[in-house]
Amino acid sequence: MRLRHIEIFHAIYTTGSITNAAKLLHVSQPAVSKVLHHAEQQLGFALFTRTKGRLVPTPEADMLFAEVDKIHQQMRSIDNTAHNIKHAHFGNINIGITPALGFSVLPKAIASYHQQHPNVSFNINTVHNDAVLQSLIEHKSDVAVLFHPSPKLGVNSIACGESELVVVYPKGLFPHLPTQLSIQELIDVTFIGISDSGPLGDMLYSRLQSENMQPHSPIQVQTYFIAARLVAQGLGVCVIDRHTAMGNVDANTAIASFTPPLAFDIRALHLQNRPLSTAVQSFLPFLQSAINC
């Protein structure tokens, strides 16, 4: 039996007539009769007999129905799964994220998304610019969200928003609590150095070089989070992204933008030969909203 035969047979068997089967399947009665006749020809036996104007299943049809019903349920399950995938009712999102966005932005985005898509699961990996391509190729990440990533062959880039580098400083260092600072105002200030800070580190270095400044950095760390906590102890200033700064400012610290600003873009990357799933596509607007709020 073909799938169409199974569909027609199941509809007639469960509704009791060609008329009702046609209504159930939204087709004409002649179309149902034609498919039923073709199915019986292929099987070599009758599936129904007509008694008092009603189609009655033959013993052969009763024996066949148990197996046909299993297939029919599987077909409905496939249809439901396809519908859910199309509308992102469930699925799995493997997302790589720069640690700075993982502290506050990503949790907010997932919380908002989860309210509308509670059955979509997430697998979150922290990634850095130098390892993003490997993460995508190895399927660890369907999409990776980074600060100011450099163009890469075979990788698509989707704009998610913008941010900036800011100075986090102890309030006692600048009692007037400026909201903007120039490089020249930081010449005699101790910096908490951040090693291997990727494109943002390169951006800061270029600005320092252009103003002939060599910062004094007796303490070196590897994460923005640790740098911000050291500033809170009065050990110097640090230059980090605004999202991390906002999540770590406390009663002892303040934030200032650079003048002129050190702005950068935030982008989502995925391999060109691996289109984004419906679930990922539906999630990105929530992430963009969390980044830009």
Automatic annotation (TrEMBL):
The biological processes this protein is annotated with in GO are:
lysine biosynthetic process via diaminopimelate; positive regulation of gene expression
Q: Which residues cross the membrane?
A: none
Any one Pfam family here would be LysR_substrate
Look up keyword Disulfide bond and say if it applies.
no
Listed SUPFAM superfamilies: Periplasmic binding protein-like II, Winged helix' DNA-binding domain
Identify the keywords attached in UniProt to this record, alphabetized: DNA-binding, Transcription, Transcription regulation
Entry GO MF terms: DNA-binding transcription factor activity; sequence-specific DNA binding
- Annotated HTH lysR-type domain ranges read 1-58
Family, as annotated: Belongs to the LysR transcriptional regulatory family.
Instruction: Supply the name of the protein.
Output: LysR family transcriptional regulator
What lineage, starting at the top, does this entry show?
Bacteria, Pseudomonadati, Pseudomonadota, Gammaproteobacteria, Alteromonadales
